[in-house]
Protein 1
Amino acid sequence: MLTFYLREKQFYMYVVVLSNKLNQKVFIMDLRRLIIERKVIVVLDPAVLNTPADDFYSRFGSSIESIAVVAKAPSGRTYYNSENARQEKEYSDYFESYANLGDQLGINVYAVINAFSDEWFGQDPMYKTVDSEGNAIHTHVCPNRKEYWHYLSEISKEVVMNHAQGVILTGLSYINSHYCFCEHCRKEFSEISGLPLDFNFDDVKNNPSIWEQWVNWRKSKISEAVNHITNEVWSVRKDVYIIPTVYYDMEVGGIKSTLELFGQDPLAVSYTHLTLPTKA
């Protein structure tokens, strides 16, 4: 599959998914229509469609102003030569090839970084995220780890120093409202709420005032992570954008659901509520 983001009123959202098994001519025609008519930004992931940069740009370069390329995969590995993260050997120069050639062609390249979706760190007891029953999700990390925020910041700084015009942070959320109950989160929320350290999800959900604290506390962690990454990136380049991906669906509760399920407040994490970068 290929995923597209639509830029609309300064928000990015998923708009369409296409199969790479489509007839090639139909696929190219539909992709060009999406790029030209809908002004979408294509997100390229070599694990889905491993097209060389020169081939892609020769086909679509005249039709696009911007493109997004995955730089850090959900596996936790990078698609470029990183000094801070493990590289995916098969695609070790994928992001760099698109960023460097895009820069030469005058095309804005955005780096897609999977934030808390990280299978590598998800295996680490220090960073794993668990529910109140102790069930761990090894494909994600706990969003409440400042050491990991710093790690994401270092990766983000690497890509913006490698011709990326901005960073799209995806996987930027809690898994659902039942997370996180790791030892670190238990201790911190226990101090805030007055609950004993062995509290469970029902203790939170069944008490309206505690539930409100839970929602606001998790929201603060996602927002603080975005602000931390943003400030670190702007310390090395002030002309780039940090663009969070927000999970939003009007049919299942809209912003309220986004906040309660994933800890995301669209306004709090929107770059429009940060000091906008100054062009050099």
Note: Residues 1-29, 272-280 have pLDDT under 50 and may be disordered.
Protein 2
Amino acid sequence: MKKDKLFKFADNRVFIDIGEGCGNACKYCYLDDADKPQKVFNHNMIDDCIQEILSNPEFKPGKTGTIISFCPHTEPFKSSFSTKAMIFAIRKLAPYKNLMQLATKEIIPDFFITEVNDILDDRQLTAFISVSSLEKQSCLEPFASDYRKRFENINKLRGSKVKGCIYLKPFLFEEKEFESLFRLIKEVNPDAVCIGIVYSHFEKQTTEFLKHPTEDSLLSKGTNDKMHEFCNYIKCANIPVHFTSTCVIAQLNYLWNNVSIPQELCVSCSEECVKRKWDR
């Protein structure tokens, strides 16, 4: 695979893959080969990719520079090989002080947390723990870890340099699941919750799962009244709620205090602005 296929710059972020294929086979995924077994790139290939990123004029080092988004097309913790590849990439990039993010539907290994704690600055990496359904998880995400184990990641991260966010996107929960979902979130008390219907700008035209329980399709709009009602429950538990991952990262790192930052990180999600609402 060509190096320029391993990363992409967009909207003050650089997206980096450490492999191809995910292996979770999520039915709503925007990838055409979502059920393809994961193939992890070797460290030399990842290193070459990182060196090319660092030499690219679009890359800006530092806490307020380019956000590094890992694994847009693969699962960072699908195997010990992918986990070690993640540690390798983080070790190479951490000295530049850029903020980082990753999303997972797997159990974060203890050895990953131990190793990156010696590499990262506090809050430099945010882990988005992805959950889209409770009752339909085995059908929608057949090869991902059980959602209960995913929530336990938040407890594992507590006290580490990695911040934990519950990522409810796409929000495929039925209203009857709200009570159980709220209880799970309140029990683990994450650093933030990110919520939304829209999963991707790419839409699969032929899938039975394109239909959303409360909307015309997965991509009809970002949020709805029921979701806002659920958000209010979370806010009452004093847990910050956001609609985009960049907003989560900016809030957890107090970047909105810098008046020059919102213009760079705000994605104009059209929701009520929460930049200065939470001070945590």
Note: Residues 80-93 form the longest helix (14 residues).
